[in-house]
From TrEMBL:
<dbReference type="InterPro" id="IPR018535">
    <property type="entry name" value="DUF1996"/>
</dbReference>
<feature type="domain" description="DUF1996">
    <location>
        <begin position="42"/>
        <end position="302"/>
    </location>
</feature>
<keyword id="KW-0732">Signal</keyword>
<protein>
    <recommendedName>
        <fullName>DUF1996 domain-containing protein</fullName>
    </recommendedName>
</protein>
<dbReference type="Pfam" id="PF09362">
    <property type="entry name" value="DUF1996"/>
</dbReference>
<feature type="signal peptide">
    <location>
        <begin position="1"/>
        <end position="15"/>
    </location>
</feature>
């Protein structure tokens, strides 16, 4: 499958039938997960550390804690905030903050997905994350195994990485109601950038973070949480050429995992409140106002072979798939985790929680 076949995914409601006819055998599970907790914990990079250096927004199963470093997390969870009720995985990213002219900060809240999808797990997740699992035939896609986890991106990066142009991006919504959301993630050079947008985005900012699609078949994790996975030999710029060859060191094709977050920057559209020098006012919780350090963490937690069933199915699209259990948005929102690090996540604060990382 080539990159050009993906441009219809964000307009699934109107283009899906034609695309399915042309691309039979492709499965794209796309579903929302409501927030399970906002906390300054990172069990992947800083296991057991309370608090961790910066704040994250976490969705998924309620087994999330500071020390979930190994093993199958699905056995420790009793509920999930995600559409598929057997998905006890945890997905998390850093929070975004607005820095006002007076130097104070306020957390930017998240919206749902673009309204053309118009399902409860897109429009009613109230600060959650959209998750994609994509499988393209022919060729076997092997679902992640219990205990699997990985990290993508580098919070210390402050310059563009050309290799990740199609994998890690922001989209400036140029009008209200998600104006500008008309093409595939990270594919429109006019509105997609690796850096945070530098001007007012009237409808908010969308970020997309995409993970590698090849696995070494042996290690469920690695010291840097990255080395056990890899991009196809064609490189990440062609990542949705899912039929592309994996390197011999990482021969197992795994699902394409992508996160999508829509940041509601609209309360901060008044440039009179921006820094006096006119600089870009949005900072991730680790002190990055470039956006190049955008990163995401994943801990696999699907119960049994439920994800493999989805990857083996043909033409499962969106937030439902044959033989996969689902729940209502009201059930999902009842799932939560108690906050461990007590901090103000909603008011104005004098500095980023944990302080700003050095540039």
């Amino acid at each position: 499958m080539r990159w050009t076949t993906f441009v219809i995914l964000p307009t699934l409601a109107t283009a899906l039938p034609q695309w399915l006819k042309r691309q039979g055998g492709t499965t794209m599970l796309r579903f929302g997960c409501a927030q399970v907790v906002i906390d300054r914990l990172d069990p992947l990079v800083n296991p057991g550390q309370i608090p961790s250096p910066h704040v994250h927004q976490i969705v998924g199963g309620n087994a999330f804690n500071a020390s979930m470093t190994t093993g199958d997390v699905s056995g420790g969870a009793s509920c999930t905030t995600c559409r598929f009720s057997d998905d006890f995985s945890n997905y998390w990213t850093a929070n975004l903050y607005f820095k006002a002219r007076n130097g104070s900060y306020k957390r930017v809240k998240q919206l749902g997905a673009a309204r053309q999808f118009n399902d409860d797990f897109s429009t009613k997740i109230d600060g959650g994350v959209l998750v994609y699992y994509v499988s393209a035939q022919p060729g076997k896609i092997t679902a992640f195994k219990p205990g699997f986890r990985m990290l993508v991106g580098d919070p210390a990066r402050r310059t563009a990485d050309p290799a990740l142009k199609r994998h890690n991006c922001f989209r400036c919504y140029t009008g209200p109601n998600f104006g500008g959301d008309t093409s595939a993630p990270c594919m429109d050079n006019k509105i997609d950038t690796q850096n945070l947008p530098k001007d007012v985005c009237k409808g908010g900012i969308r970020s997309n973070i995409q993970f590698p699609t090849c696995w070494d078949g042996k290690n469920l994790d690695s010291p840097d949480h990255k080395s056990h996975v890899a991009h196809p030999t064609s490189g990440p710029a062609n990542f949705l050429s899912l039929g592309g060859s994996c390197p011999s060191t990482h021969p197992i094709r795994i699902p394409q995992l992508m996160y999508e977050v829509v940041w509601d920057t609209t309360p901060f559209n008044n440039k009179a409140e921006w820094p006096a020098d006119g600089s870009q006012p949005f900072y991730f919780s680790y002190g990055d106002n470039t956006g190049y350090g955008q990163h995401a963490d994943y801990v696999f937690g699907w119960k049994g072979d439920s994800l493999q069933k989805g990857m083996d199915a043909s033409n499962c699209m969106g937030a439902s798939c044959k033989d996969m259990k689902v729940q209502t948005i009201d059930q999902a929102k009842k799932c939560s985790v108690k906050t461990t690090v007590k901090e103000d996540n909603d008011g104005w604060i004098s500095q980023l929680p944990g302080g700003e990382m050095p540039m």
